Structure formats: C-alpha cells, structure tokens
Amino acid sequence: MAKILVHITCGPDDPTRAALGFFVARAAIEEGHTATVFLAGDAVQLLREPVLDGLHGLGTGSLREHYAAIVAGGGRFVLSGASSKARGLTERELDGKQYEFGSPSLLVRLAIEHDRIINY
After folding, report:
1. By the 8 A CB rule, do 61 and 72 touch?
2. Which CATH architecture group holds 3-119?
C-alpha cells in the first residue's frame, strides 16, 4: 500500500477545505494506506479542542470524527513548530493529542519519503 502525505495550510476560517484534508487522510487509512497529516500556517489551530469539536465542513463532515479515525488507524500528525508558536499553540494545549512538532526540513523529508502528497 501507499504512504500518503496530506499537507494542510488552511485553518478554521475555511472549514470545508480544512475538514476535507482530514477526510482524505481518513479515507487513505480506511483504504489500507499509511497517512501523515502535516499542519502548517493557520491549520495548526485545527487541533484546538473547540475547533475539533465545532468544525464541520460543508459535505466534508466532522473534524473531530475524522481526527479520531486517523488516530485510531495509526495516522501521524505533525504540526509546524514555527506556525504553532506564532499562534500561541502550546504543548500543554495539545495534551492528550497524538502529534509532534516539525520544521520545514521535516516536511521536505516527509515529501521525499511518501508516495503521494495531497495539499489543502
């Protein structure tokens, strides 16, 4: 099976597109593929509890449900460390979530390691 990298840069202000990125990562996992979701820019805010609970895309579903399915399926979440810091997103706020912080160089390595990249 394939390794899929989903790179999301849109945040809560574009709920349909943001949920679509999670929805596609979930679909990849459900099809038996490996999925990594790299959140950068405003997308790092998608892992905030109020956003996870309240964001529903038009025709793309619940962010919380997609997140839970990705985690349950072994998906990996990487958040841009610089984007997180610029938006005041801390490790404490992310407590209990499955994630890691990454850098642009990690994004480049992930892009090279994965078979396909999907951007939102």
Report:
1. no
2. 3-Layer(aba) Sandwich (3.40)
